[in-house]
Automatic annotation (TrEMBL):
PANTHER family: 3-OXO-TETRONATE 4-PHOSPHATE DECARBOXYLASE-RELATED (PTHR22789:SF0), FUCULOSE PHOSPHATE ALDOLASE (PTHR22789)
Membrane-crossing segments per the record: none
Keyword vocabulary terms for this entry: Lyase, Metal-binding
Domain Class II aldolase/adducin N-terminal, first and last residues per copy: 13-189
Domain of life, per lineage: Bacteria
Name by which UniProt lists this protein: Class II aldolase/adducin family protein
Keyword Signal assigned: no
Pfam families the record matches: Aldolase_II
InterPro entries, alphabetized: Aldolase_class_II_sugar_metab (IPR050197), Aldolase_II/adducin_N (IPR001303)
């Protein structure tokens, strides 16, 4: 890597640790899903590589690219890099993105059905219900473009017939958001097997309650 580029060693370590944690916790199956961090000062994205087993991933395997996908260090970035770049390009409040195909939330994504806001964690961390972005072919920039109307208002979205994307100003928070999306989907599915979940209430003053 060019010496003028920022040292992204700590970001690479954080990405590997979070990716392996996500794999252990069942948020990623096989090599699906991807994570990234963005260094706005240099315009560099650190992102998981394409198709690599999470259990053997090392910090040096993390790929550094610019917003146009030019590889500055490493080999081949995740096939979903365009989605990450599109979000960072248009929503500067975000510095980290987690993308999963976590099963309960992805079940809603393939139904193209919003996950209703029924838990306080959804109000506090996810901005309420989890909406579905319009369909786009996997790997296209349109996956990111279609998320922008949702991610500009709240830090999580379902990707139609695909999975989940969450964003935050840190990777730890983006991952927490992804876990809450999956947990919410699981709880709503369980509740719907018995009855009709009651949505949270947001009153006219904007105060939120369950
Ligand atoms: Zn995907």
């Amino acid at each position: 890597m060019n010496q003028s580029l920022p040292d992204m060693t700590s970001l690479r370590e954080e990405i590997v640790n979070t990716a392996q944690k996500a794999y252990r916790e069942g948020m990623m199956a096989a090599t699906s899903g991807n994570l990234s961090c963005y260094d706005a000062a240099s315009g560099r994205i650190a992102i998981t590589p394409s198709g690599m087993d999470y259990t053997i991933m090392k910090p040096e395997d993390i790929v550094i690219i610019d917003l146009d996908g030019n590889v500055l260090s490493g080999h081949k970035p995740s096939s979903e890099w365009k989605m990450h770049a599109e979000i960072y390009r248009h929503l500067p409040q975000y510095r980290a993105i987690v993308h999963t195909h976590s099963p309960n939330a992805t079940a809603y994504a393939v139904l193209r059905r919003e996950i209703p806001c029924v838990l306080v964690e959804m109000l506090l961390f996810l901005g309420g219900s989890i909406e579905v972005a319009d369909y786009a072919a996997q790997g296209s920039a349109a996956v990111g473009t279609h998320c922008l109307p949702i991610l500009s208002r709240k830090p999580a979205a379902l990707l139609a017939n695909h999975g989940v994307v969450t964003a935050a100003d840190s990777l730890a928070q983006a991952y927490t958001n992804a876990v809450y999306v999956e947990d919410s989907a699981k709880i709503v599915r369980l509740a719907m097997s018995t009855g009709c979940p009651i949505p949270a209430v947001i009153d006219e003053e904007g105060s939120k309650s369950i």
